[in-house]
Amino acid sequence: MKAARGEVLQGTLDLIVLKTLDALGPLHGYGIAQRIQQVSEDLLKLNQGTLYPALLRLEQRGWISSRWGVSDNNRKAKYYSLTRSGRKQLASEAESWERMAGIIARLLGAEGA
Amino acid sequence: MTRMRMFGSRLLGFFRKRRNDENLDAEMRWHLHLLAEENIRRGMPPQEARYAARREFGGVEQAKEAYRERRGLPFLDTLWQDLRFATRIMAKKPGFTAIAITTLAVGIGANTAIFSVVHSVLLLALPYPDSDRLTVVWSTFSSEGRGPASGPELIYLRERSRLFEEFGGIWAQSGAITGEGEPEHVRLGLVTSNFLSMLATKPQVGRFFLPEEQGTYAAKSVILSDPLWRQRFGANRQLIGQSIRLNGHPVTVVGVLPPDFKIIFPEGSSVPPDMDAFIPFPSNLAKDPSDQCYIRVIGRLRKGVTIPQAQAELESIGAQLRSEFPVFAEQALGLQVVPLHGDVVRNVRPALLTLFGGVSLVLLIACANVANLLLSRANERQKEITLRAAVGAARGRVIRQLLTESVLLSCLGGAAALLLGSWAMKPLLSLRPAGIASLVATAFSLPVFGFTLGLSIAAGILFGLAPALGTTSLNLVECLKEGGRATRPGRQRPRKLLIAGEVALGFVLLVGAGLLMQTFVSLLRVNPGFNSQHVMTVRLSVSGVKYQTHESAILFFRELQKKLAASNGIESVGVISHLPFDDTLPNWYSYYWAEGAPKTEQNTVMADYRSILPGYFQSLGAQWVAGRDFDAIDVQEDRPIVIVDDTLAARTWPGGSAIGKGLNIEDGNFRQDATRVTMEVVGVVKHIQSHSLTDQVRGQIYMLYPRAARAHMALTVRSNMDAQSLVGLIRRKVASLDKDMPVYGILPMDDYLEKARRPARFTSSLAVVMAAIAVLLACTGIYGVASYSVLQRTSEIGVRMALGARPGEIFAMIIRQSLLPVLTGVFAGLILSLALTPLLSGLLFGVRPVDPVTIGTAGVLLFGVGMLACYLPARRATRLDPIAALRYE
Questions:
Q1: Nearest-CA neighbor of B354 among B753, B759, B773, B692?
Q2: pTM for the complete prediction?
Q3: Which of B203, B410, B640, B749 is the most exposed place for a label (fewest CB within 10 A)?
Q4: What architecture does CATH give domain A6-112?
Q5: Residues of chain B positioned with their CB less than 8 A from the CB of A50
């Protein structure tokens, strides 16, 4: 179990957060963290605290925006949502990620063959 | 764009620190809460659920720190933190802080004050449109330096030049405005029609001259300066188009110049800055006699043309002039173009740069002093810094904090310097030489603030760096072992080096100031050829309708002289066309030669021509060399005789007597038919310095007034009356003869001399102030180091005394060790000054740049000051109680 849990690759956290917000709409920090754990089926090791500096960075770049709202159980919570330029960024990052993954896959495939 | 947004967000984060912290805290707490709840739902006991949540979340504080680092501006955060710490440290040691700030304020303030002069005089452009393309065009002659041009020359230049956009010319004269109200003397500029438009964009009211207004003999239009328009005509806009009386003739006011308009011309060009009125040249310049040179020419270069290109063109035009006009070939006429600004500041640039160099030395000394203070503080702060290093502070971080402290210190010094500088501005301005009076800014400007700020930061880093590096290069273990009672002699080394450096720089300043002082003293001792004490001068204009004939003017002067001489308290009264050291009038100078001189010796040497009436030499107390003075009969009979000065006599008739010889001179009344006449020399008088105290610029020829009638004349009155009642008396006597005669330019002869000494007074007094500051700083520096070393060595001294050292030995030891760096500094300063003082030679008079007496005095003075500074600490050392000293640790 322990061996299978991978560290979050540098730079991939951005993509993951953007994709999560794209898929689920506005979310608070806890929601994003839960979603990441859920999708990765707990295979991805994420110190949930590191999410917050990442969220700030994305917000500073203008890719996500945040506002204070009220959660399901009536508590003040900060909601993050994707901006238009964030959507563009997501598309271009996803594309380059897929290209990279394709290259790696081909490389590994060729070696395996 | 993204970067801008990022910076904006960070800047916001920097200022909203607390609110953001609270928000982040709430966000994270809630996150943890939700995680824990989830765990409870999965069946964990509450306590364990919370622990698990913490594990999943990771380090809360690390996350917060990472968040904060992204959020604000870490650079500013650190700076803010360091600044707060620095303020606390400084507040804790108010004495140290006050001394450091005062020292820096003096150093930086001196620089601020001098820089504000340098900036306004040397760096700022002249207040004219396209001023960087404005040039002065001088005519040069074989034997003489540069001079004005003649009318045909100017016209020729205009026709031939391709690289100049235009040429303009001016001739400063004087006139009188009569009619309604008091008669008023005006400084009148005769100008080409384009001259004013070259120096100003547009008139305040009305228009500039039209080309057809030039050369119409009787001047018909006039343009007034703003002050004259305000003072005499009450700033009446209706004046445009109206007629006023100038020199008795009606002229139409066509325009008024802008309020800040000034004519800024090089010194010696006889064009004063504050002209009252302008009229177009009345004569047709092209038809002027080609040997009457009186027009001061300015030219505006075309865009992109350089001075060397323009000079090359003017040289070829000069060659054409020489081939077309025989008189120019005879005089070997040449043309020279120089930038207007460069020419205006030509005389003051060396002095200003010298002073600027001097104040930077003062600042270096101040920095060395503060560095020394910081070094002794650093020793005290070793414990604190060692502790920081021990708990993991990086060396760079500690250096940064120490540098923040020193830069803060010097910025406070800079702020105090601005106060000090603005206070020092007034005496500084009162000393400025006349040549740059119109350029010097009277208030600080933005660039000056910028300079002070930049200088403060640079100084802070300069004096802070060495102590910061020194303190942080400590060996931790060593320091902790010693427990802060460091008495390592090696640590004294940088401080002694600083002292030696200070003393060396102070030595250079002392020598420089000494040389400039001696220059000023030599100038005071110069015998100008006359005795200026008790001589009052006033100017009178005998022009206009009333004085169209010479006889009427002579009558006026004779009566005035008679009336004044008869008054009690007046010794003698003279009349002259050009007062010594008065450069507001165009100088009158021309060629002369001995009667019968061969053609090759004609048109080679020039002399100053002066028009006088009997009594002038007596009133000035001039010294007779040979022959006789003019008398009333000479005037009455209109005799063709002259008096010359001794330099002219010796040059023209070497070894022989000048008396009775014939001298070929220019006709004083500029008659078109006979431009040259021969007159007999009847007297030789000692040269009267009239342009410079240091050079006998030209020989002098004195003609009698009727043979050289001038509209502008001056009265020289020797008396033992006080100035006020004397001036009142003169005014009354003048008015009794002619109520329309303006009396102006009332100035004791002493003032003219003072003006001539002013540049030397300016540089020497500033240099002395600088040297005094330097010596004071060096003195405090030496004292500081000596007393600190006594303090540090208290226990050692105690041991020595306990072992039987006598107080005298202790005293000698302290003195010896404290004076060693002083001696080193004096020696280094000696070498440095031998290298540097020759740079001053252009500013010196009556003393050589390498002057053993000055150097010796400086050395003795500094050594004495050093002795004085060590005396108290050394005496303190001898009075230590051995028991107390041993317990000192």
A1: B759
A2: 0.77
A3: B640
A4: Orthogonal Bundle (1.10)
A5: 58, 63, 66
